[in-house]
Amino acid sequence: MATSSRLDAKIPQGSLESKWSKYRSSVPLVNPANKRNLEIIVVGTGLAGASAAATLAELGYSVKAFCFQDSPRRAHSIAAQGGINAAKNYQNDGDSVYRLFYDTIKGGDYRAREANVHRLAEVSGNIIDQCVAAGVPFAREYGGLLSNRSFGGTQVQRTFYAAGQTGQQLLLGAYSGLQRQVGMGTVKMYNRHEMLDIVNIDGKCRGIIARNLITGELERHGGHAVLLCTGGYGNVFYLSTNAMGSNVTAAWKAHKRGAFFGNPCFTQIHPTCIPVSGEHQSKLTLMSESLRNDGRIWVPKAKNDTRPGNEIPENERDYYLERRYPAFGNLVPRDIASRAAKERCDAGYGVGSSKLAVYLDFAAAVERYGRGEASKNNIHNASDADITAWGKAVVKEKYGNLFDMYKQITGEDPYEVPMRIYPAVHYTMGGLWVDYNLMTTVPGLYALGEANFSDHGANRLGASALMQGLADGYFVIPYTIGAYLASEIRTGKISTDHEAFVKTEQEVRERIEKLISIQGKTSPELFHRRLGKIMWDKCGMARNEQGLKEAIVEIRALRKEFWSDVKVMGTASYFNPELDKANRVADFIELGELMCLDALTREESCGGHFREEHQTEEGEALRDDENFMFVSAWENKGTEEWELHKEDLIYENIKIAQRSYK
Amino acid sequence: MEGNMSLSLKVWRQSNKDTAGGFENYKLDHVSPDMSFLEMFDVLNEQLIEEGKEPVSFDHDCREGICGACSMYINGRPHGPLRGVTTCQLHMRSFNDGDTIVVEPWRAAAFPVIKDLVVDRDAFDRVISAGGFVSVNTGNAQDANSLPIPKVAADDAFAAAACIGCGACVAACKNASAMLFVSAKISQLALLPQGQAERSIRAEKMVAQMDAEGFGACTNTGACSAECPKEISLENIARMNREYIGAKFSSSAV
Q1: Containing H/E element for A50?
Q2: Global pTM?
Q3: Which residues of chain A have pLDDT under 50?
């Protein structure tokens, strides 16, 4: 097996530890006077986009940033709850850059690139420094120093957090930096604008076509480089923890214009989400992984036990994660925790009215913290009621907003009865294929953050998404973009009168007109729901050959039906969320087919990708390193047609092993 | 259909900021008490599409109470009857079968209506651009733990920083004042050592921009804080006034 000649990851030579520092010192630079004349388009303003736009503007580039929301501050990074990893070793518990690197590669089930992941671990500490300097109010200890907690798949405490609102605080930090540049005129911000295509001229990406969502007008924007920071595509499943507006359109348009799509089937199913309550459900809400620091996951030992959770005695409970994985217990990585929950529910031990849920229980933590408070305050004869009250107060301080959210959604009080949780689609490790510079296979077109495929392999560890988004935006792209832009200083301003802009805009316009003109019987929402059901049933937590083949047939039929029966109300000449949705659903349908094709081709189980044909006797994922230790990079060749290119993964520094958390 | 609640809805419809709007009445059956308020609107919109009518436009995104996009003025209160939640976190179990529910957009001169229940909140972004930041370019930072911050100060700053920028405070205020929003950002940075260097100029510039946007004055009625989904404290307004007056006495800028 050898890497396809179409893929050059451009990984620098040298030892793993020196690759980034050497490369950073040798990558071509652009002088300040030239930077002003180079325009960079940033699409998306989440952690990756906002940090990239602000930092590139600080460096002197001329930046245009786009978001479909009404303000850059609303990008879905804001909803990340638990934390951000960094190899600071502030807790003196043996953490190091190497250990964060190793945990991330292992957590990704050996399907990520060594060099990228090591760079991520190297810059992780700088991110925390930068965020604190920008005024991000991380949690602190009484001595005034930063507090840390644990997350799944690690045995050190390296996660920095701000209650259950870490994503919000980090995004508002990056957003304030972005707005500072907007105020200075170095970033031109386009709110309520959706990118609907990229424009390539002579094989290079030279701009985008965006739609002003208020007026419906199509706009041409030229740039010397385009950065897609547009997040993941979990909404292909209809129900996910993503925001309602999160979509694949920008990445998908880039894919259809030549950017290869990497590992599209690698989807993260998060183990701790609030279960579905009915048909009306529009999205799923996550309960942060940080809860697994203190919550214990269990199901009744008896099938169909209908007693309320808090009335089931201790010896009739099966703490199945602690039983199966004693070394990591409730803190096993997400893919493993999700599959274990599914296994128990499928076997008939699920709880709640749907039987598709397991308990996440804080009773033990309440008692432990309550006793801790009692001894801290020198009270030796505290009553059980006092201990419970003190313990609840500690739990409230740590997780109060999550408990409130749970109560609001379910109507149950998690301080009194155990939470019910079930896995849900959360994050997509797959994304546009990028090289070490974060450039896609289209020169001048980059992908950052969740939109690219590069750092998390087949499974992402908790608190690593925020780290990667900010690493890419603050500390990677500002350097690596020089490798390309240094050769663009003679290009001059990109004219949007070029025929490529005219032609691409016309194609976008025709598609919109087509969507409006069909006037069939079915709303975009109903198509989306049907797609989601196919994907969840056949390309979800467990996949098999027969199901995937069926799914491809069904998705193709759905695509045809969509383009002959979709009903889009209103017109294209004013604010029309129905049209926006139809556009996005059309792209999700095409992506769904590629995900199934990728899952079908990858005949092994790894990370979040579980093929039922490939498992150990104990039901663990069974990798096939001999035949599948590669990145799948799919090239679009036309409607329903793709060609697979492979990038071999070479591990020079890590010994490959069967992943074990037992 | 899964629910058994029937509702009468009076919903504000308006084509754009230049045309007059008005209420439309809708009947909705089979509403489940477990639906969120926005999911109830999803059902309404699917019903309207089926009837060949244009669905109601409304802002929403994360649907878990943190992005700040959703913005419905429900029965005369921003985000509806419950305290401390956004519209997306409001569930139909907070209403009764047979209720009539009136839904309007945020009403403020600084928030022009874009369509139906969608308003333009760009003014908030411009206020942040005026000074809601610490001027620190990427790469300049020292080690994060070289700057100890007392837990109490960090916690207070965090409480102010919890603002989601939804604009409920402006919608709740009879003067459409943005003092709670602006003071939350000024407080967060005034409470932290990182914010000290620009403390005075920040207060002056953000207040000047707030005034330029056309937000009203504060008369201390406290509706903003009472209706704030993140329960941002009125104390922040007091702190902002202190910061602003102090800055005015000591500074020559602006």
Answers
A1: helix A47-59
A2: 0.97
A3: none
